[in-house]
Amino acid sequence: MVWAVLPLKDLVKAKSRLSGVLAPFERRVLMQAMVEDVLTALASVAELEGVLVVSDDPSAELLAHKYGLEWVAEARLGAPGLNGSVAAATAMLAERGVTDFMVLHGDIPLLCAADLQQLLAVYASSDTDIVIAPDLNRDGTNIMVLPAAAELPFCYGQASCAAHTRLAEERGLSVRLVESERTGLDVDEPEDLLRLYHHLVNDPVAEHCAGLLLVDEISQRLRAVDSSGLGTAAMEVKHDAV
């Protein structure tokens, strides 16, 4: 059985690159909405043995308890930063006998249980050692399923998908990429937010994000940003971590 690890930054400071579209309190509420949509998906997957939320944000602890999931403070792990905290969290679980991990981020709001089950099914196939669901640009590593025995260094940041693939292949491990819009759409830039908004207008699958982005004030503002073309001027370089 696989344990999922969900690292989260301070929700108050999250998504600063959306500052031209959303006010600070709106960015914080959006981040929580995305996390809740991801947690909803995780909590619905019976194939997962458990889910560990890693964060120093008190709200993250409350959310973990709300969904019946385990939480640990990043400070308690003694390894700050995304890569350090994920490595420490997986090592802690490995000491408890966990043999396989799914590491994912909290800003993939279109994610649903079926997507996670598909990734787990691919991982269970005999010819696959590591499964990666990259972002839409094949730059970041949105979701990764891997064995503890791989001892793979975590390299989240710019071009992490290529870095994780290279490190795995250097260890003689096979890697399979599984791509879809639902697993690939991580919201960092205004253009990502607009893509999410357009998806939700047609299919409000992400309940918490839909409840936020489809309300009149924010919806009107996003339509204005879309018509102005500002959303297409987002930065090209994207990074993991939320």
Automatic annotation (TrEMBL):
Its EC number is 2.7.7.106. InterPro entries: CofC, Nucleotide-diphossugar_trans. It is an enzyme of class 2 (transferase). It catalyses: (2R)-3-phosphoglycerate + GTP + H(+) = 3-[(R)-glyceryl]-diphospho-5'-guanosine + diphosphate. Keywords: GTP-binding, Nucleotide-binding, Nucleotidyltransferase, Transferase. One of its GO terms (molecular function) is phospholactate guanylyltransferase activity. It holds the Pfam family CofC. Pathway: Cofactor biosynthesis; coenzyme F420 biosynthesis. NCBIfam families: F420_cofC. Belongs to the CofC family. Guanylyltransferase that catalyzes the activation of (2R)-3-phosphoglycerate (3PG) as 3-[(R)-glyceryl]-diphospho-5'-guanosine, via the condensation of 3PG with GTP. It is involved in the biosynthesis of a derivative of the hydride carrier cofactor coenzyme F420, 3PG-F420. This is 3-phospho-D-glycerate guanylyltransferase. The gene is cofC.
